[in-house]
């Protein structure tokens, strides 16, 4: 019931992350993906909105998952924050009519994976100059400057930057107060570590239903914990991006 409950209100931010697991299927052991969606609503609170399992990360898989969320009432999504999952960007655009923020942390790992160990610190320091800019416009300008500076010695990094600028800097089009939370999937890091810890104990699951039972119970625990915490984002900052802002009540803190 928890994973199929109605979703009410506006959810401007949606974080999606995946965990890769092993499951038995027809006498074979196959890989499957457990994806989890967490949203921040117009009241600044976080909730687990859903999960699904599947063998493929192609566009139809993501479309089905996102449609299952909209069928339950998900609306008002302005930005989807996720790793560079195949098919998700197109699905988010078609189903939610929104853009995707590519997880900056994972993207940086991809950058450094293209650089020899002796040069990683220098390249990382140069790339990070993009992310300290005060505006998206300044960041875009610095991004192109850094890419050009790296092109001669680290062409594969420059090429990655050429093709990923829109995705990695998407979060900067939103209120600066949200940048820390929306530039990556790090807000889900603690939850994902616990999912991996508990699923590692099982090792190989007998079927997808067993995954949903175990992970679903953990997600309910996390959701209950978040319900008792203070707002994740302020009403004032969210009011600038949601369609129907929630007005703060006198004497109620953020």
Describe the structure.
The chain is an alpha/beta fold and 254 residues long. It is built from ten helices and six strands. A hairpin with a 5-residue loop joins strand 2 (28-40) and strand 3 (46-54). The longest helix is centred in the C-terminal third of the chain and has 20 residues, at 208-227. It is globular and about 55 Å long. Mean pLDDT is 93; it is low at 249-254.
In short:
Helices cover 45% and strands 18% of the residues. With 254 residues, it is of the alpha/beta class.
Q: End-to-end distance, in Å?
A: 30 Å
Query: What radius of gyration results from the CA coordinates?
Result: 19 Å
Total count of strands: 6
Order of helices and strands: EEEHEHEHHHHHHEHH
Q: Tell me the strand percentage band.
A: 15-25%
- Estimate percent helicity: 40-55%
State mean pLDDT (0 to 100 scale): 93
Overall geometry: globular
| Biggest sheet details | 6 strands, mixed
CATH class of the largest domain, named: Alpha Beta
Count of individual helical segments: 10
Per CATH, the superfamily of the largest domain is: Ribonuclease H-like superfamily/Ribonuclease H
Report the uncertain regions: 249-254
Structurally, the number of domains stands at 2
At CATH level 2, the architecture of the largest domain is 2-Layer Sandwich
Structural class given helices, strands, pairing?
A: alpha/beta
């Amino acid at each position: 019931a928890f994973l199929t409950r109605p979703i009410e209100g506006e959810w401007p931010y949606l974080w999606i992350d995946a965990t890769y697991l092993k499951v038995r299927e027809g006498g074979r052991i196959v890989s499957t993906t457990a994806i989890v969606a967490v949203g921040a609503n117009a009241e600044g609170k976080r909730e687990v909105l859903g999960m699904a399992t599947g063998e493929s990360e192609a566009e139809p898989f993501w479309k089905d998952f996102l449609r299952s969320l909209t069928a339950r009432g998900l609306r008002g999504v302005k930005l989807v924050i996720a790793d560079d999952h195949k098919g998700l960007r197109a699905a988010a655009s078609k189903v939610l009519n929104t853009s995707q923020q590519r997880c900056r942390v994972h993207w940086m790992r991809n950058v450094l994976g293209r650089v020899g160990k002796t040069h990683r610190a220098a390249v990382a320091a140069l790339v990070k100059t993009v992310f300290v800019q005060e505006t998206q416009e300044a960041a875009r300008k610095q991004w192109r400057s850094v890419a050009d500076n790296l092109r001669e010695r680290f062409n594969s990094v420059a090429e990655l930057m050429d093709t990923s600028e829109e995705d990695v800097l998407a979060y900067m089009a939103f209120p600066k107060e949200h940048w820390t939370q929306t530039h990556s999937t790090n807000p889900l890091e603690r939850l994902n570590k616990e999912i991996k810890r508990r699923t590692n104990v099982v090792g190989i699951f007998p079927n997808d239903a067993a995954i949903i039972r175990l992970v679903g119970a953990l997600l309910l625990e996390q959701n209950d914990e978040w319900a008792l915490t203070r707002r994740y984002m302020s009403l004032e900052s969210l009011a600038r991006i949601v369609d129907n802002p929630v007005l703060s009540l006198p004497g109620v803190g953020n």
